[in-house]
Amino acid sequence: xxxxxxxxxxxxxxxxxxxxxxxxxxxxxxxxxxxxxxxxxxxxxxxxxxxxxxxxxxxxxxxxxxxxxxxxxxxxxxxxxxxxxxxxxxxxxxxxxxxxxxxxxxxxxxxxxxxxxxxxxxxxxxxxxxxxxxxxx
Length: 137
Ligand code: NI
Ligand code: NI
Known about the structure:
Blueprint: H1 13-26, H2 31-47, E1 54-64, H3 70-80, E2 85-92, E3 97-107, H4 108-119, E4 124-133
Antiparallel strand pairs: 1-3, 1-4, 2-3
The structure holds nickel (II) ion (2 copies).
One nickel (II) ion (NI) binds at residues 75, 79.
């Protein structure tokens, strides 16, 4: 196990009560575990503000299968960025709607720009990009 440092945290009893309720709900074993996760989550958010940070993640889209030429348009973007689009999963949600999940990796700026090119295609009803850091220390 890595060396750990202990430190004290002072906060209002009401806030602590809320925090304990939250960590019970989330299933953490201890306050320390919960605080560690919060700090990690926040530091990941910070590093994602660096546009050159290497990241990996998923772009989830829902699109209208009947929109004009949409399948070709989507595949064109993916081929143009084949180094960043690692895998796709496709589900036919119903007669007209498709759900597609794309696994993407690369620098923040590249992954964001691919997501923008895809979600702005006419017929894409919703798109959500979720990324995480590629390297953790
Ligand atoms: Ni292809
Ligand atoms: Ni489909």
